[in-house]
Amino acid sequence: MSGFGVPAGGVTGQRRPPGAAELATSSREELVELGSALDGVTIAHREDQFPVPGTRAEKRTERKVTRWFIVAALAGLGFLAAYLFWPYEYAPPGSSGSQHLLYQLYTPIIGVLLGMSVFAVGGGTIAYAKLLLPHEAAVQERHIGGSAELDRVTTSAILADAGASIGLGRRSLIKRAAGLGAAVTSAGLGVFALGGLIRNPWKGGNHAALWVTPWASDNGEPVFLRYDSEQLRLARPEDLAAGSIATVFPYKRSWSEQQAHDAMHASDSPVMLIRLRPEQAAQVVQRKGQVDFHYGDFYAYSKICTHLGCPASLYEAQDARLLCPCHQSQFDMLEYAKPIFGPATRALPQLHIDVNDEGYFYARGDFIEPVGPAFWERRS
Ligand code: FES
User: Is the CB of 348 under 6 A from ligand 1?
Assistant: First the structure.
């Protein structure tokens, strides 16, 4: 029987419920006992893991739990530092120093640190529950209908008692470590969510990376079309047979070896130089404003698919169609590379090409629209 004379295992209706005055003067333990009985809960077994507070064994266990939260805090701090200060900008293979390696490590580093932080918070919570909470087995009978005022009052007492039972109040070391771990991990998640909105991809204005490619030339120096070869080889009209294509990259004579290397490996550099068959060239529909962008039967288009940026270079010479292998977008090379099948919705940007006095192809300027997948701020 409980302190209120309510038999454990359920009872509403077997006894007059205690009045407001009786409830107001009841201790928390009595209310817990009453609430359990009213809920039909029977505590079959309850054992405190550390009945005597402050023993060395308890302190040792507390330190074990604390270590989890310290790891969570350190990993969270590491994540924040890496996310904010790691050199994340793209650096092509072979870049000076270890820039490329640092760039490659960025995503794994922030992933591992954030994962460690969340994992350690979870580990600490589980360790606390397993090592410090009382072992308890309770049985509850189910009943139908909503809860009465009496039940609500006693449930509050039970929750307050649970808070006191888990002993977080007197375990300040764990409380502080858990607070630190959870705060740092949450800060990391917050920065992760907001970071993309804070970084400004347009900080270069009209020279921001999304507007300009290595085909641009500020000083009027010609940007030649070169092949991907060990030795420098500039493209010339006689290199391509009718109905064939070649991938070319930008090259300026004033560039250092490193600059030439970087331009070769920039994601927006690759261009397809296509030589149409004469009968196909006769049917070509030019894009408005770009009628002189080609040189005879030669057309140059960005190789970067306007859907999601895969290299689109499977050329079907018979139909003059270009296929992107990623999601099967097809582009019609007889109609300014406009998409005719698949998820891509924009034509491939065309490069304005010409041939100089020495017989080499060069670009008469950068692309007049952004290369690759669409984005909100795109102007064309
Ligand atoms: S990236 Fe080319 S079709 Fe999707």
Answer: no
Mean pLDDT, the chain cut into blocks of 10 residues (380 residues total):
46 61 83 79 83 88 93 93 86 77 91 94 93 86 75 84 74 82 82 72 79 90 92 95 96 92 90 95 92 96 95 92 95 95 94 96 94 78
- Alpha carbon nearest to ligand 1 atom 3, residue: 327
Say whether both 235 and 317 belong to one domain: yes
Q: In terms of domains, do 287 and 185 share one? A: no
Domain with 301 in it: what CATH number?
Answer: 2.102.10.10
What range defines the domain where residue 117 resides?
Answer: 56-198
Q: Note the Cα 30 to chain centre separation in Å.
A: 52
Q: What is the DSSP letter of 6?
A: P
Rounded to the nearest 5 degrees, what angle is found at the Cα of 234, between the Cα atoms of 231 and 237?
Answer: 140
| Ligand 1 touching residue 327 (CB < 6 A) | yes
Give the separation between CA 94 and CA 107, rounded to whole angstroms.
19
Q: Distance between CA 264 and CA 89 in Å, rounded?
A: 17
Examine the domain organization and report whether 99 and 163 are in the same domain: yes
Number of domains making up the chain: 2
pLDDT at residue 380, rounded to an integer = 59
* CB contact set of 139 (below 8 Å; sequence gap of 6+): 41, 42, 44
Residue located via tokens 């790891």 = 71
Would you state the pLDDT for residue 8? 44
Does residue 342 have its Cβ closer than 6 Å to ligand 1?
yes
How far, in Å, from the CA of 338 to the mean position of ligand 1?
A: 13
Residues 225 and 263 in one domain: yes
| Residue 309 alpha carbon, nearest atom of ligand 1 | 1
Which residue has the least CA distance to atom 1 on ligand 1?
A: 308
State which of 305, 321, 330, 345 you would mutate to test the pocket of ligand 1, scoring each by most atoms of that ligand within 8 A of its C-beta. Answer: 305
- Ligand 1 midpoint to CA 95 (Å): 28
Ligand 1 midpoint to CA 330 (Å): 9
Q: Which amino acid is at 109?
A: I
Hey, whose CA ends up nearest to atom 4 of ligand 1? 327
pTM over 0.85: no
User: Does residue 224 sit in the same domain as residue 138?
Assistant: no
